[in-house]
Amino acid sequence: TVLVVDFGAQYAQLIARRVREARVYSEIVPSTMPVAEMLAKNPAAIILSGGPSSVYAEGAPRLDRALFEAGVPVFGMCYGFQLMATTLGGTVDNTGAREYGRTPLHVSKSGSTLFEGTPDEQSVWMSHGDACSAAPEGFSVTASTDVVPVAAFENDEKRLYGVQYHPEVMHSTHGQQVLEHFLYRGAGLTPNWTTGNVIEEQVAAIREQVGDKRAICGLSGGVDSAVAAALVQKAIGSQLTCVYVDHGLMRKGETEQVEKDFVAATGVQLKVVDAEERFLSALAGVSDPEEKRKIIGREFIRVFEQAQAEIIADAGPEVAFLVQGTLYPDVVESGGGTGTANIKSHHNVGGLPEDLEFKLIEPLRKLFKDEVRMVGQELGLPDEIVQRQPFPGPGLGIRIVGEVTKERLDLLREADAIAREELTAAGLDRDIWQCPVVLLADVRSVGVQGDGRTYGHPIVLRPVSSEDAMTADWSRLPYDVLAKISTRITNEVADVNRVVLDVTSKPPGTIEWE
Ligand code: XMP
């Protein structure tokens, strides 16, 4: 395992993902963890992430020197680099010489482990105020910028390395190569971690954990619950029952997809609960977004619990486990805690009741989203499920601005299906993170369709690109694709006479409208 020490500010997750992309297993630990505890995990290498502090700031995180003296290869990035420099006797000055954004890096490759095979001049992503002016003794300086004399240093004998910039971000053009040089050449690691290992390990662990008891799993139609269920199904077969609550807020064809494709691919036992009417009557007359979310969440838990009770009534008390599609970012964001699942209320409508009587099975706890997709693929799930873009638990209920009714849902389903079809046909599915299609049900606009005046509703297209949904930018879709979607929606969907494009990044806008 490579430990990524998290000094804050979201960099650590990205680094951990990049390490795994290099096929080396990584885990994140907080910088407050004592060094002895880090070393007790027997890490193959340690990476120190960037962070928001200046090494000179009061209360800035520090590191025990022992970390660098344990013989474990270490790679410091940005804040981690400066910390390494100051801890080992180099000089970091608060010169006021800030660098932020894309910066040209001058590399000296002779004898460099990190930069071999990369260009003498490369573009890197900088974000710092302090600058290293002298490397610690025994280190050679292998890169600089116009502003920073020491932008990278290396000590092959001690296997300690550092760079001032952020190799993990895409704007650092050779960042992944430099990271891999550290892992393979500096630390001598072999790239052999695959999602295939994960399946084997998890299947064995789940069999052991469940024994001859039974498990249930709520399917949402999303990637995570589908892959978690498929994995558990592989491990314990008919001891698993899945429950799918059809709340009537799904997109066109999605319920059928779960019923047919998922069952066909996995052979899972599936209980489908048709709860459309129940949800719609609970939502009647409500247009406040938070209110809608609360109602949908509450109804969901009730329906799920009822289904659960029925399964237990049928199968007896040996139903002891609940499968959850918790991912690694959820674990890290909720404090990286061991044991109890900590689920973001906002992101999981099936939020767990406090007095949970089940033990949890969380087979995806160590995985990032893209890895979950790979596992799903290896388990033979169809692309339509595995490559599915994120879709919120409250479904189309939060994509109708205004009251949610069956007629409006049907209308939005049609518009959404057209947008999805055209985006897929244009080969854009992998370029965009997701594309909410929103019905402004409380807004009317005048149009002219056929021979007469219409007074209909606008549909909003909200295509975004993102790496993690925390921040996002609006996708620059080709005009001809937008034109096709617009023409088709206004022609084919009754009562819609206008299609508009949302050109807001996040922040300030969120991805969903509600
Ligand atoms: P926002 O709108 O907060 O969305 O920018 C960020 C991501 O989260 C999804 N989302 C949800 N997912 N339950 C979910 O499972 C929810 O209540 C929920 N609300 C937003 C949204 O689609 C985007 O991917």
TrEMBL record:
Catalyzes the synthesis of GMP from XMP. ATP binds at S220, G221, G222, V223, D224, S225, A226. Keywords: ATP-binding, Glutamine amidotransferase, GMP biosynthesis, Ligase, Nucleotide-binding, Purine biosynthesis. SUPFAM superfamilies: Adenine nucleotide alpha hydrolases-like, Class I glutamine amidotransferase-like, GMP synthetase C-terminal dimerisation domain. It comes from Streptomyces umbrinus. It catalyses: XMP + L-glutamine + ATP + H2O = GMP + L-glutamate + AMP + diphosphate + 2 H(+). It is an enzyme of class 6 (ligase). GO terms for molecular function: GMP synthase (glutamine-hydrolyzing) activity. Pfam families: GATase, GMP_synt_C, NAD_synthase. Pathway: Purine metabolism; GMP biosynthesis; GMP from XMP (L-Gln route): step 1/1. Homodimer. This is GMP synthase [glutamine-hydrolyzing]. Residues 193-388 form the GMPS ATP-PPase domain. NCBIfam families: guaA_Cterm, guaA_Nterm, PRK00074.1. It comes from the Bacteria. InterPro entries: Class_I_gatase-like, GATASE, GMP_synth_C, GMP_synth_GATase, GMP_synthase, GMPS_ATP_PPase_dom, NAD/GMP_synthase, Rossmann-like_a/b/a_fold. The active site is at C78, H166, E168. Its EC number is 6.3.5.2.
